[in-house]
Write a structure and sequence with these properties.
- The complex is a heterodimer of chains A (312) and B (337).
- Chain A is an all-alpha fold and 312 residues long.
- Chain A folds into 2 domains: 64 residues; 235 residues, MetI-like fold (Orthogonal Bundle), CATH 1.10.3720.10.
- Chain A is globular.
- Chain B is α+β, with helices and mostly antiparallel strands and 337 residues long.
- Chain B folds into 2 domains: 230 residues, Rossmann fold (3-Layer(aba) Sandwich); 102 residues, Nucleic acid-binding proteins (OB fold (Dihydrolipoamide Acetyltransferase, E2P), Beta Barrel), CATH 2.40.50.140.
- In chain B, the strands form 4 sheets. Chain B has a 6-stranded mixed sheet with strand order 6-7-8-3-9-10, with helices on both faces. Chain B has a 5-stranded antiparallel sheet with strand order 13-17-14-15-16, with no helix packed on it. A 4-stranded antiparallel sheet of chain B has the order 2-1-4-5, with helices on one face.
- Chain B is elongated.
- Chain B starts with a strand and ends with a strand.
- The chains are: A mainly alpha (312), B alpha+beta (337).
- Chains A and B meet through helix 10 and helix 11 of A and strand 6 and helix 2 of B.
Amino acid sequence: MKVDGNWFNERTVKPIPKLLENKEEREVLRKIKKQKIYLLALLLPFILFVIGFEIGPLVAMIKNSFYADNGIQVTIDQYITIFKSKFYLQAIQNSLVISLFSAVTSVIIAVIAAYSITKFSQKIQNRLLMIANMTSNFEGIPLSFSFIILLGNNGLFTLLFSKIGGDVFADFNLYSWTGLILVYIYFQIPLAIMLIYPSYQGIKKQWKEASSLLGGSTLSFWLHIGIPVLLPSIVGTFSILFANSMGAYATAYALVGSNYNLLSLQIASLVASDVALKPQLGSAMGVLLAATMIGAMWFNERMMRRIRRDLR
Amino acid sequence: MNYVTIDQVTKGYENQVVLNDISLTLKKGEFATLLGQSGCGKSTLLRSIAGLEGVDVGRILIDGKDITNLSPRQREVGMVFQSYALFPNMSVFDNIAYGLKMKKVKNIKSKVKNMIDMVDLIGKEESYPHQLSGGQQQRVALARALVMEPKVLLLDEPLSALDAKIRKSLQKELKRIQKELDITTIFVTHDQEEAMTMSDRIFVMNKGKVVQSGSPSEIYTSPVNTFVAKFIGNYNVCNMEVFHKLVRSTELKGNEVAIRPEVLQLVSAGEDSLDLQENWGIKGVIKDVSMTGNVLRYEVETDESAFLVDYLHHRGEMFEQGARVHILVPKKECIIL
């Protein structure tokens, strides 16, 4: 027992005061501490920015959504209004459908396009990525007007093709559901390519070679190895595209104005219109919008873990 | 009867010949090694046998069947890569079962179990590659290739990425499994020591050609040219004219003479009991002494050139740097190139 006691004293109690007695070591520790404080200080503007412009509005939005129209009474009436109104439910449904449709289509196209980009020389790959990068930033009002100029009722291509005779755009109406989806997909694809392309670099040539030596065809390689390896990035991209189009406002507004019933357009008219200003109701719809995005991300993550069991 | 035949295979990229008219044959169950420096064409030859690269001219036959133009999956060869190339999204069991599933074989479970047993990975069936050590991953890769019962097993520097100790133990195990299954194996390495310990037969390659083939001891004791002598055993290679001057005798004829460092002996310059019947004596000064654990390596400078002399590291006896010595060169150990 005595031995144990000594051991305890020497090993755990003595070295610590010794360490602090040592001047040099104390100096080093102080320097490290100082450095940490400097680093935190540099981070401070960013933290303030996030609090002021992201967390602050979010909290305000959630808080607002639980107030009545007069802004005094605390209530869940706003949510009840939404779920009782066919009009608002339709807005949510429309937004969900267009987001799902454009995200799924864009991901499928991007998976194929990004793969074919990897087959070019490095120089051409860089150029194609540059184009994708530029076009992925091309959205909102300018994009809508570009489409109107090219494919609108009096658009360049519409008129050109009707003059030539082969009127391929006769049944096409840019200001409709199809037109809206076309424009959404257009701005989603480059972004999806940018996001998926890097993950192809993670697919090793040896995996394909090993698979073929073991009797696998190209299809079985992609089915059993390629796609599952790409899956996290596909799922991540899908989530971003979904959120991107759920929240898209300017593109839709410039193209269809208030003719089409979308969640983002409704929120805008509730918080910024001059006819029926109802910021509390708008907040509640904003909360629902955020909830659907989080729900979609959660669902994606769950699905992915189910298939990629190695990532658990 | 030859089991594997490489018949006058030639292959080039753009304006560079990678494989230059290579012919070689292997017997069933043989463990053959393609040995050479990087860029000598050994990996390309292996990949051509696997069908991962085509050849421009020549034929490749396995078990009497011409496989030159078959796709990799029709060739019935197994391959293990340096980087393991395990499928990261599959467990150990699924990695090994992959090929069997592709072939729609019956009794997959028991076959995989047997293989896991053979490579000593019991208990790791459900682990994923990223949870395994390098050595374990390579065992899985080996099992994945062997479970298909390939006619030929191809190993592309499979141990190069592992640390020395695991490497040694895997060398032994690989050899054991190879003997147990009696599987014809072609092993690629740039490490002459590894080639020596593992192989029944070594093919030394240089610049796209097989420069010498034979058993490890044949290759080690009688290299056919300077390249093999230097690459395989750190031979002292000396120009014949220089050698004549050094030993003051013109008894040997030829272009160059090669002498292994471990057959040379050092005697202090003062000693006069030199056996000059069986040996030649060369005067020199110890320029450097280095130690690789059990071997002491002296670099001895003579009037004309430097010699390496290897000694087993005995306690006490050691020549100091700067000591004047005689190098005793046994006459029968001189190899003329």
